[in-house]
Design goal:
This protein has 121 residues and is mainly beta. 0% of the residues lie in helices and 60% in strands. It has no helices and twelve strands. The chain has strands spanning 2-7, 10-13, 18-26, 28-31, 34-39, 46-51, 57-59, 67-72, 77-82, 91-101, 107-111, 115-120. The strands form two sheets. Strands 2, 4, 5, 6, 7, 10, 11 and 12 form an eight-stranded mixed sheet that branches. Strand 8 and strand 9 (77-82) form a beta hairpin. It is elongated and about 50 Å long.
Length: 121
């Protein structure tokens, strides 16, 4: 089993900052690209940012220049630093980690439980 535990969400005023963390644990052999997704009420889940094990990053156009994704491979942890937050960033943020399971070599698409980010105007 592999689990993702997210933290760092909350309520912030527009223009403020938050830092999300997501730690993976369990029977992990390797994790490929880790990513943050978000889902606002009434909308589909969308990719916010992703980072490979080598450090290559990809961002949604709506967050470029404001959000920064980073990763600590030794800790199997991914972070999302969110600056200059806007009300339209309000959503539940989910961590994603495609994982190769230790021992079996099986592949799991693992998701966190989600953390709510609310940006007030």
């Amino acid at each position: 089993q592999v689990q993702l535990v997210e933290s760092g969400g909350g309520l912030v005023q527009a223009g403020g900052s938050l830092r999300l963390s997501c730690a993976a644990s369990g029977s992990i052999f390797s994790i490929n690209a880790m990513g943050w997704y978000r889902q606002a009420p009434g909308k589909q889940r969308e990719l916010v940012a992703a980072i490979t094990s080598g450090g290559s990053t990809n961002y949604a156009d709506s967050v470029k220049g404001r959000f920064t994704i980073s990763r600590d491979n030794a800790k199997n942890t991914v972070y999302l630093q969110m600056n200059s937050l806007k009300p339209e960033d309000t959503a539940v943020y989910y961590c994603n980690a495609p994982t190769v399971v230790a021992g079996t070599g099986g592949y799991l698409e693992v998701w966190g439980q989600g953390t709510l980010v609310t940006v007030s105007s």
